[in-house]
């Protein structure tokens, strides 16, 4: 855990951001939108602005990849036909 933390991110703040990431994923899954914005706002209040966007992008990538893996068997692989 010490590799992930430094002077900017204490264990308390890391736990808070992890909780917000989980809650944001829940909001997105339940309502379809809004969880990413909640996470972005919470990160902006804790982290320096220069790293908020890159870290948010990585968190969203992980969240969406996890969701894609979890629902992989439900992907519709049929190609749409060009018949009108």
Please give a structural write-up:
The protein has 84 residues and is mainly alpha-helical. It has helices at residues 11-31, 35-46, 49-70.
What are the main properties of this structure?
84 residues; mainly alpha; 3 helices; 0% strand
User: Could you estimate the helical fraction of the residues in percent?
Assistant: 55-70%
Q: How many beta strands in the DSSP annotation?
A: 0
Global Rg: 17 Å
First CA to last CA: what distance? 57 Å
Would you identify the regions where 5 or more consecutive residues have pLDDT less than 50?
Answer: none
Tell me the series of helices and strands, N- to C-terminal.
HHH
Brief sketch in words of this structure:
The protein is mostly helical and 84 residues long. The protein is built from three helices and no strands. The N and C termini lie far apart (57 Å).
Layout: helices, strands, pairs:
Blueprint: H1 11-31, H2 35-46, H3 49-70
């Amino acid at each position: 855990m010490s590799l992930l933390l430094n002077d900017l991110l204490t264990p308390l703040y890391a736990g808070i951001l992890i909780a917000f990431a989980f809650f944001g994923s829940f909001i997105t899954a339940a309502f379809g939108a809004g969880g990413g914005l909640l996470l972005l706002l919470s990160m902006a209040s804790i982290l320096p602005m220069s790293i908020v966007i890159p870290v948010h992008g990585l968190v969203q990538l992980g969240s969406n990849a996890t969701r894609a893996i979890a629902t992989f068997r439900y992907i519709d692989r049929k190609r749409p036909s060009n018949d009108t």
